[in-house]
């Protein structure tokens, strides 16, 4: 293959890669955001498992805080899709809620789960149930809000959402 043919083949590949339809661009944007939220959700789930199994609680807690902060930065870098805030603001809200939960409810749960068993009282156990319910309620609410926003985004750009 001559250098000219190789060059034109390379340019054609770049042109074809750069010719995403608006629908494909919207799909890719959605997928980027979902990937970030999936990473944050996974680290939160791992922290929950750590608390249940009494394994590596402090390191997973610190790791969760770092990962959620990192996810916030990535969402800020992703920015808006053609000035459309439909999906990114609810995604950022998910991360903000995770950060709040980590700095309050999860912090208290980590402290509880690292107490010596002799310091654990019925009232403390009861308070952890309340903390877990608060975490569940806030997480569920913000995730549903994102899912509704994602559906609106999908409708606007004729995307089909699959789980």
Beginning-to-end CA distance, first to last residue:
44 Å
Mean pLDDT over the residues:
88
Radius of gyration over alpha carbons?
22 Å
The poorly predicted ranges are: 1-17
* Element string (H = helix, E = strand): HHHHHH
CATH topology-level name: Four Helix Bundle (Hemerythrin (Met), subunit A)
Number of strands: 0
User: Which term fits the overall shape?
Assistant: elongated
CATH architecture: Up-down Bundle
Based on secondary structure, the structural category is: mainly alpha
Number of helices: 6
- The first-level CATH class is given as Mainly Alpha
Integer tally of domains = 1
Determine the strand fraction and express it as a percent band.
under 5%
> Percent helix among the residues?
over 70%
User: Main sheet, how many strands, which sense, barrel?
Assistant: none
How are the secondary structure elements laid out?
Elements: H1 3-17, H2 22-53, H3 57-78, H4 88-103, H5 105-113, H6 122-156
Helix pairs in contact: 2-3, 2-4, 3-4, 4-5, 4-6, 5-6
Summarize the structure.
The chain has 163 residues and is mainly alpha-helical. Helix content is 79%, strand content 0%. The chain has one domain: Up-down Bundle (Four Helix Bundle (Hemerythrin (Met), subunit A)), CATH 1.20.120.
